[in-house]
TrEMBL record:
Keywords: 4Fe-4S, Coiled coil, Cytoplasm, Iron, Iron-sulfur, Kinase, Membrane, Metal-binding, Transferase, Transmembrane, Transmembrane helix, Two-component regulatory system. Gene3D superfamilies: 1.20.5.1930, Histidine kinase-like ATPase, C-terminal domain. PANTHER family: NITRATE/NITRITE SENSOR PROTEIN NARX-RELATED, SENSORY TRANSDUCTION HISTIDINE KINASE. It holds the Pfam family HisKA_3. It comes from Paractinoplanes durhamensis. The lineage of its organism: Bacteria, Bacillati, Actinomycetota, Actinomycetes, Micromonosporales. This is Oxygen sensor histidine kinase NreB. Residues 324-416 form the Histidine kinase domain. Residues 175-202 form a coiled coil. It catalyses: ATP + protein L-histidine = ADP + protein N-phospho-L-histidine.
Length: 421
């Protein structure tokens, strides 16, 4: 990724360098004037004329550069400025060849004032002629052959400087454009992040609403599978006890059975209410919470259930941990109601991208191709688990066959609290 601050600093330093270069011609003009004054053996025009041209040149530079720096972006004004500089350079070289030390600064003005390769090439050629004249002894030329050689070298230098300057300015323009593009991209990214924050809040609201809907469906299944079935059994046993009123032994048996069904239904009702808000997750990590659920289920049903945890446990999103805990509760409830199992094994596996929960029993099993119909006898369990897992982009796989037990495998994304923050 491009460092925006580094590119911006480089552009600032380039602009400062261009500004400093505009001060060089003043020093060159002063030095050239001093050389004219102290060099008695070099022919020159009258001093008053030289003084007028030097003052005019200084005023010209001050007016166009120092007093009006913003004019640098006006191509028309800069064209007039450069033409005036070229005329003054030729006049100064005509006054004395020693002003050739000032004439070469015209290359700086070529880069400063002119835009485009063609204009800079023309400007560089004009400056090259002036410096060539100065190096050949001034105007008029005393040796045209010598002037031709000097002019050739000056034109080569002028073209090279023009090329390098043009390349530098083009790269500078590209950097400036890149800075603008990066700034625009950063602004869009910031806007996208703000939008994502709003979407995240919206998704959380939708997740809560989906959770409420999911809990309603779960409670509907619980009521139908457990409570309604238990109440139906109680009513049936009470009716049977009423019919066997003349037989004390049968009457007592039906009454005891009705009490047992009532106690079981009460236990299941309490379990369903507690599952609305898994309090075990508030005090324990997910493996411990599932272990407590398995231990409690084993104690109530007299079936051995053990939990094995693999991988490195880590805190997941509350929605994911809640879903896994409730999946374990639902799977164990199904085992108690339908499997007639003697042993249940739960495996919680933490992997890099996913977390899986496997619940296996050695019960009667069933044919997954012919699932149980939703009726008074049950049938909500697997459907409720699958819908709950789909809410968090999870999956549910069921493997079973009659007489060979059942394996239920839930797989959810391993989204940690740190990744979601």
């Amino acid at each position: 990724m491009t460092d925006l601050s580094a590119v911006a600093r480089l552009e600032v330093w380039r602009r400062r360098l261009d500004q400093w270069l505009t001060y060089v011609p003043y020093g060159a003009l002063v030095c050239s004037t001093l050389l004219v004054l102290i060099s008695s053996n070099v022919p020159h025009r009258p001093y008053p004329l030289i003084a007028v041209l030097v003052v005019t040149t200084l005023g010209w530079l001050l007016w166009w550069i120092a007093l009006h720096p913003l004019w640098v972006d006006d191509r028309g004004r800069m064209g007039v400025f450069f033409a005036g500089v070229v005329v003054l350079i030729y006049l100064l070289v005509w006054c004395s060849p020693l002003f050739g030390f000032f004439a070469w600064t015209g290359y700086l003005f070529t880069a400063y004032a002119l835009k485009g390769r063609l204009h800079r090439a023309i400007g560089g050629t004009l400056v090259a002629f002036a410096t060539g004249l100065a190096q050949a002894g001034g105007i008029p030329v005393s040796s045209w052959s010598y002037f031709a050689v000097v002019l050739f070298f000056n034109l080569a230098i002028a073209n090279a400087m023009t090329f390098l300057t043009t390349m530098t300015h083009e790269q500078s323009a590209k950097r400036a454009e890149m800075i603008e593009q990066l700034a625009e991209a950063n602004a869009k990214l910031a806007a996208a992040l703000r939008e994502n924050e709003g979407l995240h809040a919206q998704l959380l609201t939708q997740a809560r609403e989906a959770g409420v809907h999911d809990e309603r469906q779960r409670m509907a299944g619980e009521i139908h599978d457990v409570l309604a079935q238990g109440l139906t059994g109680i009513v049936t046993q009470l009716e049977a006890a009423d019919a066997a009123a003349t037989d004390p032994a049968a009457w007592r048996r039906h009454l005891d059975t009705a009490k047992g069904l009532a106690r079981d239904s009460l236990t299941e009702a309490r379990r369903s209410v507690q599952a609305l808000r898994p309090q075990t997750l508030e005090a324990s990590a997910l493996p411990e919470a599932i272990g407590e659920v398995a231990a409690g289920w084993s104690g109530r049903n007299g079936v051995r259930a053990e939990l094995i945890t693999t991988g490195t446990p880590r805190p997941l999103l509350p929605e994911i941990e809640t879903t896994l805990l409730r999946t374990a509760q639902e799977a164990l409830a199904n085992v108690a109601r339908h499997a007639e199992a003697g042993r249940v094994a739960l495996t919680l596996s933490y992997m890099e991208d996913v977390v899986t929960l496997d619940v296996r029993d050695d019960g009667t099993g069933f044919d997954p191709a012919a699932p149980r119909e939703i009726s008074a006898a049950g049938g909500f369990g697997l459907a409720a688990m699958r819908e709950r897992l789909l809410r968090i982009a999870g999956t549910l796989e069921v493997e079973s066959e009659p007489g060979a037990g059942t394996a239920v495998s839930a797989c959810v994304p391993a989204i940690t609290l740190e990744a979601a923050a």
